[in-house]
Amino acid sequence: MTITRSDPEPPGDSSVGGSGPRTAMQQIARFGHPITRRLLATDGFTQPRLEAILGTDLQVRVLRQDELVAEQLPATVSEALRLAGPDRVIVRRSCLINADMVTASVNYVVAVSGPATAAGTDDLHVPIGRGLVSRGLSQRRLVLRAGVTRWPDGRLCAFKAYVIMLGEHQPLCYIREIFNPSFVPPEHAAVSDEDLSWADEPDYSRSQPAHPSTVRRGGCDAESPRTDGQCSRPLPVLVHPRESDSLTTDLAAAARGQAFVVHLSARTSAALDAATLPARRALAICAAAVLKHGLDLPIVTIGQLHTNSEPCRTPTDFEASAGDQEYHRAAAQLEYWRVANPPIALCTQMLRGAADRYQASVVRDLLIEVAAMLPIAASAPTASRELYSSIAPLHISRTVRSCESDATRPQLTRHEWDRSTQLLWIGDRNHEFTSQHLSFAARVRNPLAVTLGPTATPDDVEFLCRYLNPIRRPGRLTLIPALSGTRTADALPALFEAATRGGTPVSWMCDPMHADDPAAAIHTYVSACRTTGTAPAGLHLDCEPRSRLGTGLDTGRALHCVITTLSAMWAS
Prior knowledge:
572 residues, alpha/beta, Chorismate lyase, eight-stranded parallel β-barrel, six-stranded antiparallel sheet, 18 helices
Protein backbone atom coordinates (compact mmCIF):
# COMPACT_ATOMS: atom_id res chain seq x y z
CA MET A 1 0.00 0.00 0.00
CA THR A 2 1.26 3.49 -0.82
CA ILE A 3 1.26 5.92 2.09
CA THR A 4 1.67 9.64 1.48
CA ARG A 5 1.47 12.07 4.33
CA SER A 6 3.17 15.16 5.65
CA ASP A 7 4.65 15.14 9.15
CA PRO A 8 4.89 18.66 10.61
CA GLU A 9 7.49 19.29 13.26
CA PRO A 10 6.50 19.42 16.92
CA PRO A 11 5.61 22.93 18.12
CA GLY A 12 8.63 24.86 19.31
CA ASP A 13 11.24 22.64 17.63
CA SER A 14 13.69 24.03 15.10
CA SER A 15 13.54 22.55 11.63
CA VAL A 16 16.63 21.27 9.84
CA GLY A 17 18.81 24.13 8.60
CA GLY A 18 17.93 26.53 11.38
CA SER A 19 14.47 27.75 10.36
CA GLY A 20 13.87 29.17 13.82
CA PRO A 21 11.20 28.41 16.40
CA ARG A 22 8.30 28.31 13.92
CA THR A 23 7.10 24.91 12.80
CA ALA A 24 6.38 24.26 9.13
CA MET A 25 2.64 24.53 9.77
CA GLN A 26 3.13 27.87 11.51
CA GLN A 27 5.17 29.10 8.56
CA ILE A 28 2.41 28.07 6.16
CA ALA A 29 -0.21 29.83 8.29
CA ARG A 30 1.55 33.16 7.65
CA PHE A 31 0.41 33.14 4.01
CA GLY A 32 -2.68 35.22 3.34
CA HIS A 33 -4.33 33.30 0.52
CA PRO A 34 -6.11 29.97 1.11
CA ILE A 35 -4.90 28.56 -2.25
CA THR A 36 -1.31 29.01 -1.14
CA ARG A 37 -1.88 27.57 2.30
CA ARG A 38 -3.61 24.49 0.90
CA LEU A 39 -0.89 23.91 -1.67
CA LEU A 40 1.94 24.18 0.86
CA ALA A 41 0.17 22.08 3.46
CA THR A 42 -0.94 19.30 1.12
CA ASP A 43 -0.05 15.79 2.22
CA GLY A 44 -0.30 14.56 -1.38
CA PHE A 45 1.67 15.17 -4.53
CA THR A 46 2.24 18.75 -5.63
CA GLN A 47 1.66 18.32 -9.35
CA PRO A 48 -2.05 17.32 -9.17
CA ARG A 49 -2.71 20.28 -6.84
CA LEU A 50 -1.03 22.69 -9.24
CA GLU A 51 -2.96 21.19 -12.15
CA ALA A 52 -6.21 21.79 -10.26
CA ILE A 53 -5.24 25.40 -9.57
CA LEU A 54 -4.32 26.08 -13.22
CA GLY A 55 -7.07 23.90 -14.72
CA THR A 56 -4.64 22.20 -17.10
CA ASP A 57 -2.16 19.35 -17.28
CA LEU A 58 1.50 20.02 -16.51
CA GLN A 59 4.62 18.48 -17.97
CA VAL A 60 8.09 18.05 -16.49
CA ARG A 61 11.04 19.80 -18.12
CA VAL A 62 14.41 18.78 -16.70
CA LEU A 63 16.81 21.71 -16.90
CA ARG A 64 19.88 19.77 -15.87
CA GLN A 65 21.05 16.85 -13.76
CA ASP A 66 24.44 16.39 -12.09
CA GLU A 67 26.09 13.81 -9.86
CA LEU A 68 28.01 15.20 -6.89
CA VAL A 69 29.55 14.01 -3.64
CA ALA A 70 27.71 14.68 -0.41
CA GLU A 71 30.51 16.84 0.98
CA GLN A 72 29.53 19.50 -1.57
CA LEU A 73 26.09 19.83 0.05
CA PRO A 74 25.28 22.16 2.96
CA ALA A 75 24.30 20.69 6.30
CA THR A 76 20.68 21.65 5.56
CA VAL A 77 20.49 18.88 2.98
CA SER A 78 23.14 16.37 4.06
CA GLU A 79 21.72 16.09 7.58
CA ALA A 80 18.17 15.73 6.28
CA LEU A 81 19.30 12.89 4.00
CA ARG A 82 21.67 11.41 6.62
CA LEU A 83 24.62 11.55 4.24
CA ALA A 84 28.33 11.09 4.82
CA GLY A 85 31.01 12.97 2.87
CA PRO A 86 31.84 10.33 0.22
CA ASP A 87 28.21 9.45 -0.55
CA ARG A 88 27.07 10.21 -4.11
CA VAL A 89 23.96 12.26 -4.83
CA ILE A 90 21.99 13.24 -7.92
CA VAL A 91 21.15 16.94 -8.16
CA ARG A 92 18.31 17.78 -10.54
CA ARG A 93 16.78 21.10 -11.54
CA SER A 94 13.44 20.95 -13.29
CA CYS A 95 10.23 22.84 -13.84
CA LEU A 96 6.56 22.10 -14.46
CA ILE A 97 5.06 23.83 -17.50
CA ASN A 98 1.56 24.07 -18.97
CA ALA A 99 0.50 23.71 -22.61
CA ASP A 100 1.45 27.34 -23.31
CA MET A 101 5.00 26.71 -22.04
CA VAL A 102 4.39 28.85 -18.94
CA THR A 103 6.29 27.66 -15.88
CA ALA A 104 4.16 26.79 -12.85
CA SER A 105 6.96 25.71 -10.51
CA VAL A 106 10.74 25.41 -10.44
CA ASN A 107 12.07 22.42 -8.52
CA TYR A 108 15.41 21.53 -6.98
CA VAL A 109 15.94 17.86 -6.07
CA VAL A 110 18.80 16.14 -4.28
CA ALA A 111 18.51 12.34 -4.28
CA VAL A 112 20.77 9.67 -2.80
CA SER A 113 22.23 7.90 -5.84
CA GLY A 114 21.69 4.24 -4.86
CA PRO A 115 18.12 4.45 -3.54
CA ALA A 116 17.19 6.93 -6.31
CA THR A 117 18.16 4.44 -9.00
CA ALA A 118 16.39 1.59 -7.23
CA ALA A 119 13.22 3.66 -6.80
CA GLY A 120 13.28 5.04 -10.37
CA THR A 121 13.72 8.60 -9.11
CA ASP A 122 16.46 9.18 -11.67
CA ASP A 123 13.94 8.79 -14.54
CA LEU A 124 13.95 12.20 -16.21
CA HIS A 125 10.48 12.02 -17.73
CA VAL A 126 8.38 10.79 -14.80
CA PRO A 127 7.43 13.03 -11.87
CA ILE A 128 8.99 11.66 -8.70
CA GLY A 129 5.75 11.19 -6.81
CA ARG A 130 3.98 9.42 -9.65
CA GLY A 131 6.99 7.20 -10.23
CA LEU A 132 6.97 6.08 -6.61
CA VAL A 133 3.23 5.37 -6.71
CA SER A 134 3.59 3.31 -9.88
CA ARG A 135 6.17 1.15 -8.11
CA GLY A 136 3.97 0.71 -5.06
CA LEU A 137 6.58 2.15 -2.70
CA SER A 138 5.53 3.27 0.76
CA GLN A 139 6.49 6.90 1.33
CA ARG A 140 5.94 9.87 3.56
CA ARG A 141 6.89 13.54 3.40
CA LEU A 142 8.73 15.42 6.11
CA VAL A 143 8.23 19.17 5.61
CA LEU A 144 11.33 21.11 6.65
CA ARG A 145 10.40 24.66 5.78
CA ALA A 146 7.82 26.81 4.00
CA GLY A 147 8.05 30.50 3.26
CA VAL A 148 8.90 33.06 0.62
CA THR A 149 11.83 33.33 -1.76
CA ARG A 150 12.50 34.87 -5.18
CA TRP A 151 11.03 33.73 -8.48
CA PRO A 152 13.61 33.81 -11.34
CA ASP A 153 12.37 37.24 -12.44
CA GLY A 154 12.89 38.67 -8.93
CA ARG A 155 9.29 38.63 -7.63
CA LEU A 156 8.51 37.19 -4.23
CA CYS A 157 7.00 33.71 -4.42
CA ALA A 158 5.98 30.86 -2.13
CA PHE A 159 8.16 27.80 -1.60
CA LYS A 160 8.39 24.69 0.50
CA ALA A 161 11.20 22.24 1.18
CA TYR A 162 10.67 18.66 2.30
CA VAL A 163 12.19 15.19 2.38
CA ILE A 164 10.53 12.13 0.88
CA MET A 165 11.06 9.11 3.12
CA LEU A 166 10.77 5.52 1.97
CA GLY A 167 8.98 3.64 4.69
CA GLU A 168 9.66 5.11 8.11
CA HIS A 169 13.40 5.53 8.17
CA GLN A 170 15.08 5.77 4.73
CA PRO A 171 15.47 9.27 3.23
CA LEU A 172 15.15 9.18 -0.56
CA CYS A 173 15.39 12.80 -1.71
CA TYR A 174 15.27 16.42 -0.65
CA ILE A 175 12.95 18.66 -2.70
CA ARG A 176 12.55 22.42 -2.80
CA GLU A 177 9.62 23.72 -4.88
CA ILE A 178 9.03 27.38 -5.70
CA PHE A 179 5.74 28.46 -7.26
CA ASN A 180 4.94 31.02 -9.93
CA PRO A 181 3.44 34.02 -8.10
CA SER A 182 1.09 34.59 -11.05
CA PHE A 183 -0.71 31.35 -10.06
CA VAL A 184 0.10 30.90 -6.37
CA PRO A 185 -0.39 34.18 -4.45
CA PRO A 186 2.71 34.94 -2.34
CA GLU A 187 1.04 37.39 0.08
CA HIS A 188 2.71 36.74 3.39
CA ALA A 189 3.11 38.26 6.84
CA ALA A 190 5.99 40.71 7.17
CA VAL A 191 9.05 39.27 5.41
CA SER A 192 12.39 39.37 7.20
CA ASP A 193 15.89 38.47 6.02
CA GLU A 194 15.52 35.21 7.95
CA ASP A 195 12.43 34.34 5.90
CA LEU A 196 14.41 34.67 2.67
CA SER A 197 17.45 32.81 3.95
CA TRP A 198 17.57 29.06 3.39
CA ALA A 199 20.93 27.55 2.50
CA ASP A 200 20.50 24.35 0.49
CA GLU A 201 22.59 24.92 -2.67
CA PRO A 202 25.70 22.77 -3.31
CA ASP A 203 29.20 24.18 -3.21
CA TYR A 204 30.37 23.79 -6.78
CA SER A 205 33.85 25.12 -6.09
CA ARG A 206 34.91 21.72 -4.75
CA SER A 207 35.97 18.76 -6.86
CA GLN A 208 35.96 20.50 -10.24
CA PRO A 209 37.69 18.28 -12.80
CA ALA A 210 38.72 19.73 -16.12
CA HIS A 211 36.19 19.34 -18.89
CA PRO A 212 37.17 16.31 -20.97
CA SER A 213 36.87 18.25 -24.21
CA THR A 214 39.67 20.61 -23.14
CA VAL A 215 42.20 17.79 -22.82
CA ARG A 216 44.57 17.90 -25.74
CA ARG A 217 45.64 14.64 -27.33
CA GLY A 218 47.92 13.99 -30.24
CA GLY A 219 49.59 11.23 -32.16
CA CYS A 220 47.92 7.87 -32.47
CA ASP A 221 44.17 7.50 -32.06
CA ALA A 222 44.38 3.90 -30.84
CA GLU A 223 41.98 4.75 -27.99
CA SER A 224 39.35 6.12 -30.35
CA PRO A 225 36.23 4.02 -30.96
CA ARG A 226 36.30 1.97 -34.15
CA THR A 227 39.87 2.86 -35.07
CA ASP A 228 41.11 -0.72 -34.55
CA GLY A 229 44.37 0.59 -33.12
CA GLN A 230 45.22 2.51 -36.29
CA CYS A 231 46.71 6.00 -36.29
CA SER A 232 44.90 8.87 -37.99
CA ARG A 233 46.65 10.94 -40.60
CA PRO A 234 48.56 13.99 -39.24
CA LEU A 235 45.80 16.60 -39.29
CA PRO A 236 45.77 19.61 -36.93
CA VAL A 237 44.84 18.25 -33.51
CA LEU A 238 41.96 20.59 -32.68
CA VAL A 239 39.46 17.83 -31.92
CA HIS A 240 39.67 14.18 -31.00
CA PRO A 241 37.98 11.47 -33.09
CA ARG A 242 35.85 10.55 -30.08
CA GLU A 243 34.18 13.96 -30.37
CA SER A 244 33.32 13.34 -34.02
CA ASP A 245 31.95 9.91 -33.13
CA SER A 246 29.83 11.46 -30.39
CA LEU A 247 28.43 14.01 -32.84
CA THR A 248 27.67 11.20 -35.31
CA THR A 249 25.62 9.49 -32.58
CA ASP A 250 23.74 12.74 -31.89
CA LEU A 251 22.98 13.28 -35.57
CA ALA A 252 21.71 9.71 -35.84
CA ALA A 253 19.30 10.44 -32.99
CA ALA A 254 18.11 13.57 -34.83
CA ALA A 255 17.44 11.49 -37.96
CA ARG A 256 15.17 9.28 -35.82
CA GLY A 257 13.33 12.27 -34.34
CA GLN A 258 14.95 11.74 -30.93
CA ALA A 259 17.01 14.97 -30.98
CA PHE A 260 17.09 18.28 -32.84
CA VAL A 261 20.10 20.09 -34.34
CA VAL A 262 20.85 23.82 -34.41
CA HIS A 263 23.71 24.74 -36.74
CA LEU A 264 24.92 28.34 -36.57
CA SER A 265 26.79 29.30 -39.71
CA ALA A 266 27.86 32.48 -41.51
CA ARG A 267 28.46 33.50 -45.11
CA THR A 268 31.04 36.22 -44.44
CA SER A 269 34.25 36.29 -42.46
CA ALA A 270 32.95 39.33 -40.55
CA ALA A 271 30.36 37.11 -38.91
CA LEU A 272 33.12 34.77 -37.73
CA ASP A 273 35.46 37.38 -36.23
CA ALA A 274 36.53 37.07 -32.62
CA ALA A 275 34.46 40.17 -31.78
CA THR A 276 31.26 38.31 -32.61
CA LEU A 277 32.07 35.16 -30.64
CA PRO A 278 30.09 36.04 -27.47
CA ALA A 279 27.03 37.07 -29.49
CA ARG A 280 27.24 33.98 -31.72
CA ARG A 281 27.50 31.70 -28.73
CA ALA A 282 24.65 33.50 -26.98
CA LEU A 283 22.47 33.16 -30.09
CA ALA A 284 23.21 29.45 -30.30
CA ILE A 285 22.35 29.01 -26.61
CA CYS A 286 19.13 31.01 -26.97
CA ALA A 287 17.98 29.10 -30.04
CA ALA A 288 18.74 25.74 -28.44
CA ALA A 289 17.13 26.71 -25.12
CA VAL A 290 13.87 27.82 -26.75
CA LEU A 291 13.70 24.60 -28.79
CA LYS A 292 14.61 22.46 -25.78
CA HIS A 293 11.92 24.09 -23.66
CA GLY A 294 9.31 23.77 -26.40
CA LEU A 295 10.09 20.32 -27.82
CA ASP A 296 11.53 18.52 -24.77
CA LEU A 297 14.17 16.90 -27.01
CA PRO A 298 17.95 16.86 -26.63
CA ILE A 299 19.35 19.76 -28.64
CA VAL A 300 22.60 19.36 -30.58
CA THR A 301 24.30 22.74 -31.09
CA ILE A 302 26.95 23.21 -33.76
CA GLY A 303 28.93 26.39 -34.46
CA GLN A 304 31.13 27.23 -37.41
CA LEU A 305 34.78 28.10 -36.86
CA HIS A 306 36.67 30.72 -38.84
CA THR A 307 38.65 29.15 -41.68
CA ASN A 308 40.90 30.70 -44.29
CA SER A 309 40.54 30.48 -48.04
CA GLU A 310 43.34 27.95 -48.47
CA PRO A 311 42.33 25.13 -50.81
CA CYS A 312 41.63 21.92 -49.00
CA ARG A 313 44.19 19.14 -49.31
CA THR A 314 44.35 15.46 -48.76
CA PRO A 315 44.58 14.42 -45.12
CA THR A 316 48.31 13.83 -45.48
CA ASP A 317 49.32 17.34 -46.38
CA PHE A 318 46.58 19.35 -44.69
CA GLU A 319 48.65 19.99 -41.60
CA ALA A 320 51.62 21.27 -43.58
CA SER A 321 49.43 23.65 -45.59
CA ALA A 322 47.78 25.21 -42.54
CA GLY A 323 49.71 28.27 -41.36
CA ASP A 324 50.57 28.73 -37.71
CA GLN A 325 48.55 31.94 -37.50
CA GLU A 326 45.41 30.34 -38.91
CA TYR A 327 45.84 27.27 -36.74
CA HIS A 328 46.18 29.27 -33.52
CA ARG A 329 43.22 31.46 -34.47
CA ALA A 330 41.03 28.39 -34.92
CA ALA A 331 42.38 26.87 -31.69
CA ALA A 332 41.56 30.06 -29.76
CA GLN A 333 38.01 30.11 -31.12
CA LEU A 334 37.54 26.46 -30.28
CA GLU A 335 38.80 27.03 -26.75
CA TYR A 336 36.23 29.80 -26.32
CA TRP A 337 33.37 27.64 -27.61
CA ARG A 338 34.32 24.87 -25.22
CA VAL A 339 35.39 26.32 -21.90
CA ALA A 340 34.40 29.98 -21.62
CA ASN A 341 31.58 30.64 -19.19
CA PRO A 342 28.30 30.79 -21.12
CA PRO A 343 27.18 34.42 -21.67
CA ILE A 344 23.96 33.96 -19.72
CA ALA A 345 23.41 37.69 -19.13
CA LEU A 346 23.69 38.32 -22.87
CA CYS A 347 21.34 35.38 -23.55
CA THR A 348 18.76 36.81 -21.15
CA GLN A 349 19.03 40.24 -22.78
CA MET A 350 18.71 38.69 -26.24
CA LEU A 351 15.61 36.67 -25.35
CA ARG A 352 13.87 39.54 -23.57
CA GLY A 353 14.63 41.81 -26.53
CA ALA A 354 13.10 39.26 -28.88
CA ALA A 355 10.04 38.92 -26.62
CA ASP A 356 9.35 42.66 -26.92
CA ARG A 357 8.84 42.22 -30.68
CA TYR A 358 5.96 39.77 -30.30
CA GLN A 359 2.34 40.67 -29.68
CA ALA A 360 1.26 37.04 -29.23
CA SER A 361 1.31 36.34 -25.51
CA VAL A 362 2.24 32.66 -25.93
CA VAL A 363 5.44 33.45 -27.83
CA ARG A 364 6.30 36.40 -25.62
CA ASP A 365 5.77 34.39 -22.45
CA LEU A 366 7.81 31.48 -23.82
CA LEU A 367 10.82 33.71 -24.50
CA ILE A 368 10.55 35.35 -21.10
CA GLU A 369 10.24 31.97 -19.36
CA VAL A 370 13.34 30.62 -21.11
CA ALA A 371 15.23 33.78 -20.20
CA ALA A 372 14.33 33.12 -16.56
CA MET A 373 15.22 29.42 -16.68
CA LEU A 374 18.67 29.77 -18.29
CA PRO A 375 20.40 31.16 -15.17
CA ILE A 376 19.02 28.21 -13.19
CA ALA A 377 20.31 25.72 -15.75
CA ALA A 378 23.71 27.42 -15.72
CA SER A 379 24.17 27.38 -11.95
CA ALA A 380 26.13 24.14 -11.76
CA PRO A 381 29.67 22.95 -12.47
CA THR A 382 30.94 23.10 -16.04
CA ALA A 383 32.18 19.52 -15.78
CA SER A 384 28.76 18.08 -14.99
CA ARG A 385 26.48 16.08 -17.27
CA GLU A 386 24.24 18.79 -18.64
CA LEU A 387 20.71 18.01 -19.69
CA TYR A 388 19.70 21.54 -20.54
CA SER A 389 21.82 20.97 -23.60
CA SER A 390 21.74 24.55 -24.82
CA ILE A 391 24.44 25.33 -22.25
CA ALA A 392 26.64 22.38 -23.17
CA PRO A 393 29.83 23.10 -25.16
CA LEU A 394 29.04 23.49 -28.84
CA HIS A 395 30.22 21.13 -31.53
CA ILE A 396 32.18 22.71 -34.35
CA SER A 397 31.96 22.57 -38.14
CA ARG A 398 34.30 23.61 -40.93
CA THR A 399 33.51 24.25 -44.58
CA VAL A 400 35.50 22.47 -47.27
CA ARG A 401 37.02 25.04 -49.63
CA SER A 402 37.75 24.57 -53.33
CA CYS A 403 39.92 21.49 -53.69
CA GLU A 404 42.77 20.67 -55.98
CA SER A 405 43.17 17.00 -55.12
CA ASP A 406 42.49 14.13 -57.48
CA ALA A 407 38.76 13.44 -57.84
CA THR A 408 39.28 9.70 -57.82
CA ARG A 409 37.96 8.26 -54.63
CA PRO A 410 40.68 6.28 -52.82
CA GLN A 411 40.12 2.90 -51.30
CA LEU A 412 40.09 3.20 -47.53
CA THR A 413 42.85 1.14 -45.99
CA ARG A 414 42.51 2.55 -42.47
CA HIS A 415 40.36 5.09 -40.66
CA GLU A 416 41.22 8.71 -41.32
CA TRP A 417 39.88 11.78 -39.55
CA ASP A 418 39.86 15.47 -40.30
CA ARG A 419 40.99 16.55 -36.84
CA SER A 420 40.44 20.25 -37.49
CA THR A 421 36.68 19.86 -37.05
CA GLN A 422 33.90 17.55 -35.92
CA LEU A 423 31.41 18.15 -38.74
CA LEU A 424 32.68 18.66 -42.28
CA TRP A 425 30.41 20.96 -44.32
CA ILE A 426 30.28 20.70 -48.12
CA GLY A 427 28.88 23.36 -50.47
CA ASP A 428 26.69 26.40 -49.85
CA ARG A 429 23.59 27.97 -51.36
CA ASN A 430 25.50 29.81 -54.08
CA HIS A 431 28.23 27.33 -55.01
CA GLU A 432 27.57 23.70 -55.81
CA PHE A 433 29.96 21.16 -54.38
CA THR A 434 32.57 19.65 -56.66
CA SER A 435 33.94 16.16 -57.14
CA GLN A 436 37.07 17.28 -55.29
CA HIS A 437 34.97 18.21 -52.26
CA LEU A 438 33.36 14.79 -52.30
CA SER A 439 36.67 13.00 -52.80
CA PHE A 440 38.11 14.62 -49.70
CA ALA A 441 34.98 14.04 -47.63
CA ALA A 442 34.58 10.41 -48.64
CA ARG A 443 37.95 9.44 -47.21
CA VAL A 444 37.42 10.76 -43.67
CA ARG A 445 35.22 9.34 -40.93
CA ASN A 446 33.85 12.66 -39.68
CA PRO A 447 30.12 13.21 -40.02
CA LEU A 448 29.33 15.13 -43.21
CA ALA A 449 26.79 17.81 -44.08
CA VAL A 450 26.03 18.66 -47.72
CA THR A 451 24.04 21.66 -48.91
CA LEU A 452 21.75 20.84 -51.83
CA GLY A 453 21.38 23.71 -54.29
CA PRO A 454 18.12 24.66 -56.00
CA THR A 455 18.88 22.36 -58.94
CA ALA A 456 19.47 19.21 -56.85
CA THR A 457 17.49 16.17 -57.97
CA PRO A 458 16.53 12.85 -56.37
CA ASP A 459 19.28 11.24 -58.45
CA ASP A 460 21.79 13.58 -56.79
CA VAL A 461 20.55 12.48 -53.37
CA GLU A 462 20.89 8.81 -54.28
CA PHE A 463 24.43 9.41 -55.54
CA LEU A 464 25.47 11.29 -52.37
CA CYS A 465 24.07 8.54 -50.19
CA ARG A 466 25.95 5.82 -52.09
CA TYR A 467 29.21 7.75 -52.40
CA LEU A 468 29.50 9.35 -48.97
CA ASN A 469 27.78 6.72 -46.83
CA PRO A 470 28.09 3.35 -48.63
CA ILE A 471 27.86 1.39 -45.39
CA ARG A 472 24.70 3.33 -44.36
CA ARG A 473 26.13 4.44 -41.04
CA PRO A 474 23.48 6.35 -39.02
CA GLY A 475 24.47 9.95 -38.39
CA ARG A 476 27.19 9.98 -41.06
CA LEU A 477 25.27 12.11 -43.61
CA THR A 478 23.23 15.29 -43.15
CA LEU A 479 21.55 16.95 -46.14
CA ILE A 480 20.34 20.57 -46.23
CA PRO A 481 18.16 21.50 -49.23
CA ALA A 482 18.00 25.16 -50.22
CA LEU A 483 14.45 26.42 -49.64
CA SER A 484 12.96 28.91 -52.08
CA GLY A 485 9.71 29.39 -53.95
CA THR A 486 7.02 26.87 -54.80
CA ARG A 487 9.52 24.44 -56.33
CA THR A 488 10.63 23.44 -52.86
CA ALA A 489 7.15 22.32 -51.87
CA ASP A 490 7.06 20.00 -54.88
CA ALA A 491 10.68 18.84 -54.70
CA LEU A 492 11.25 18.16 -51.00
CA PRO A 493 9.20 14.94 -50.68
CA ALA A 494 10.96 13.49 -53.73
CA LEU A 495 14.37 14.30 -52.25
CA PHE A 496 13.41 12.70 -48.92
CA GLU A 497 12.07 9.58 -50.60
CA ALA A 498 15.23 9.18 -52.72
CA ALA A 499 17.26 8.59 -49.57
CA THR A 500 14.61 6.28 -48.14
CA ARG A 501 14.58 4.10 -51.26
CA GLY A 502 18.29 3.42 -50.91
CA GLY A 503 17.97 2.59 -47.22
CA THR A 504 20.47 5.31 -46.23
CA PRO A 505 19.71 7.11 -42.95
CA VAL A 506 19.89 10.88 -43.53
CA SER A 507 19.48 13.79 -41.13
CA TRP A 508 17.45 16.40 -43.04
CA MET A 509 17.94 19.98 -41.87
CA CYS A 510 16.02 23.14 -42.80
CA ASP A 511 17.80 26.24 -44.17
CA PRO A 512 15.11 28.95 -44.19
CA MET A 513 16.87 32.26 -43.66
CA HIS A 514 17.54 32.99 -47.34
CA ALA A 515 14.19 31.88 -48.67
CA ASP A 516 11.79 34.45 -50.11
CA ASP A 517 9.52 33.81 -47.12
CA PRO A 518 11.40 32.07 -44.26
CA ALA A 519 8.22 31.28 -42.32
CA ALA A 520 6.58 29.66 -45.36
CA ALA A 521 9.78 27.70 -46.08
CA ILE A 522 9.83 26.31 -42.53
CA HIS A 523 6.18 25.23 -42.68
CA THR A 524 6.83 23.62 -46.08
CA TYR A 525 9.81 21.73 -44.68
CA VAL A 526 7.94 20.43 -41.63
CA SER A 527 4.89 19.53 -43.72
CA ALA A 528 7.03 17.60 -46.21
CA CYS A 529 8.68 15.75 -43.32
CA ARG A 530 5.33 14.73 -41.89
CA THR A 531 3.96 13.69 -45.28
CA THR A 532 6.88 11.37 -45.98
CA GLY A 533 7.42 10.13 -42.43
CA THR A 534 10.77 11.93 -42.22
CA ALA A 535 11.92 13.35 -38.90
CA PRO A 536 12.65 17.10 -38.93
CA ALA A 537 16.26 16.84 -37.82
CA GLY A 538 17.42 20.42 -37.43
CA LEU A 539 17.67 24.07 -38.31
CA HIS A 540 20.52 25.78 -40.17
CA LEU A 541 20.81 29.46 -39.20
CA ASP A 542 23.08 31.96 -40.93
CA CYS A 543 24.55 34.41 -38.46
CA GLU A 544 25.41 37.78 -40.02
CA PRO A 545 26.27 41.27 -38.68
CA ARG A 546 23.56 43.90 -39.13
CA SER A 547 25.93 45.98 -41.26
CA ARG A 548 29.20 45.50 -43.13
CA LEU A 549 31.14 47.46 -40.50
CA GLY A 550 29.31 46.26 -37.39
CA THR A 551 29.79 43.25 -35.16
CA GLY A 552 26.21 43.15 -33.81
CA LEU A 553 24.34 40.13 -35.10
CA ASP A 554 20.81 40.14 -36.46
CA THR A 555 19.57 37.84 -33.72
CA GLY A 556 15.92 38.81 -34.12
CA ARG A 557 15.65 37.19 -37.55
CA ALA A 558 17.31 33.99 -36.39
CA LEU A 559 15.10 33.70 -33.30
CA HIS A 560 12.03 34.36 -35.44
CA CYS A 561 12.96 31.28 -37.49
CA VAL A 562 13.36 29.32 -34.25
CA ILE A 563 9.90 30.35 -33.02
CA THR A 564 8.37 29.56 -36.42
CA THR A 565 10.00 26.12 -36.41
CA LEU A 566 8.65 25.45 -32.93
CA SER A 567 5.13 26.53 -33.95
CA ALA A 568 5.24 24.39 -37.09
CA MET A 569 6.33 21.31 -35.15
CA TRP A 570 3.66 21.89 -32.50
CA ALA A 571 0.98 22.11 -35.22
CA SER A 572 2.10 19.03 -37.14
